[in-house]
Amino acid sequence: MGKYVNKESLTQTLSIQLNMSKKDAAYAVDLIFNEMSDALASDGHVDITAFGKFEIFDRKSRMGINPVTKERMMIQATKLPKFRPSQTLKNKCNK
What is the mean pLDDT of residues 73-80? Predict the structure, then answer.
């Protein structure tokens, strides 16, 4: 099984690598993710060099079927974040 990364592990790595308190590292990680979320929420883009790009994808409304009642229903249009990996990340994953 590969390495598992979440906010806690990012906080710990940041704390150790930069010799800072865990509280400050957690604040920095939250600040980064909040900035990314705010950009996407305002229809912006997040472009991280050598990693990838996050963009908002407009999903059109469509017909669906309620699995319980089998009744056809209209599913509303939504906006979703979409990730496109950089070529650098693709190459790293395929080594």
Answer: 95
